[in-house]
Amino acid sequence: MQNRQLGTAGPQVSAIGLGCMGMSPMYGANVDRAESIATLHAALDAGITLLDTGDFYAMGHNELLINEALHTAPAAHRERALTSVKFGALRGPDGAWLGHDGRPAAVKNFLAYSLQRLGTDHIDIYRIARLDPAVPIEETVGAIAEAVQAGYVRHIGLSEVGPETIRRAAAVAPISDLQIEYSLLDRGIEDEILPVCRELGIGITPYGVLSRGLISGHWSRERTTDAQDFRSVAPRFRAENLDRNLDLVEALRKIADGKGVSVAQIAIAWVLAQGIRHATAIVPLIGSRRRDQLTETLGALDVTLDADDMAAIEEAVPANAAAGTRYPEAQMATLDSEKK
Ligand SMILES: NC(=O)c1ccc[n+]([C@@H]2O[C@H](COP(=O)([O-])OP(=O)(O)OC[C@H]3O[C@@H](n4cnc5c(N)ncnc54)[C@H](OP(=O)(O)O)[C@@H]3O)[C@@H](O)[C@H]2O)c1
């Protein structure tokens, strides 16, 4: 497994990270704990070192899962694993989303609980999931910087914030990486956000690289989603948009077939290739939640795309071709990264 330096201030991490969200009931209630642990172990065994989670992924469930996986893995694998944890999202007992809290006291409180659930004395990269509009980013990042000084956190990350917030945060303390949606369907970061990150030496850890499964090559019109599955409310999966989006996947499949690889591997390889194109550390977080998905994901590291391949892919899925926004309207409004 190749490693990447995540921004000038960040750690060395594997070229692909494992996003663990789907191992908790965020993409449907049907999660398999034994398979999740086996997938985490297989990822560590394959050399993946970066594990991404959020304290609000099923209210601590995801962190407890990672704790179990790390503490049942060989010591050498556990020791090289790096945890990337998001905090700040407020949840109700019914699972409702109640906003975000970035106050310094809240940061300390979230951190104390995460350390306990993860069974560790430090978190490698800590970030607020969404900007709290009531708290200046300087105060939230300042609180994490204090936790770095105290040894509870190693690096500071950001999530779904735009150029101005990135600059303000970076003026307070070194930032390792920005976590943000980036895929063939979502290239919005290329105009302003990516250049600012490159200028400031901040890496990018894209999520949604498979557009939450939509462009994995495994989604179909017949697939059903339950109420706990984000995709049941995601505009791109809605009937009127799904047909158009799956047409894009079929165009991509022709290219994948021609190269003898899978659609998911082409989609991941395209994002990996952007790191070279934009001279920035781009380390995709792929949400493989089963071992077969992980195997497919790892195969993307062996896919080479030349200029002709890149042109063909971008002709099959032109920028802004996706039908529907990446989040429902109310959630789009909470994204600092989408502010015009
Ligand atoms: N900062 C943020 O705001 C934010 C937001 C969302 C996520 N994240 C992080 O980013 C990570 C990745 O995001 P994501 O899970 O939404 O994105 P993703 O990688 O685009 O989608 C993962 C989903 O795609 C499907 N899939 C099909 N084939 C796959 C394959 N070969 N490998 C992997 N997945 C395959 C799976 O769904 P099925 O099993 O249902 O087919 C899986 O749950 C999350 O786990 C989380 O840690 C961050």
From TrEMBL:
Domain NADP-dependent oxidoreductase, chain residue ranges per copy: 16-316
Keyword Mitochondrion: no
InterPro entries cross-referenced by the UniProt entry: Aldo-Keto_reductase, NAD(P)_OxRdtase_dom_sf, NADP_OxRdtase_dom
GO molecular function, one term: oxidoreductase activity
Sorted UniProt keywords: Oxidoreductase
Descriptive protein name: Aldo/keto reductase
A cellular component annotation (GO) from this entry: cytoplasm
Statement: the UniProt record of this protein carries the keyword Methyltransferase: no
